[in-house]
Amino acid sequence: MGNLHARNKKFKFKESGGGVAYYNPVGARLNGKAISVCVKYGKGNIKNFKIIKLKDSISLKRIGKRKEMLLPAKRDRYFDFHFIIKETKPL
Asked: Rounded distance, CA 74 to CA 91, Å?
């Protein structure tokens, strides 16, 4: 699942008409039966209908010389863990 659907709590967002709606992601429905992991990329390119260039200096600083790292998400109310990948390339 993508990071939006993997969140473990409901959240609200603004609709295009100006109203506010609540979204109940799959991760919230599985709460207590699964863990939620947010995947973060340090740098590279991903393909989401087009090639998107990424650079997250905070993730790069945290990961250091490692290629990947799994961290508990202490201050993130939506995810249990953050999985940081140093560099990504589209397939």
From this structure: 32
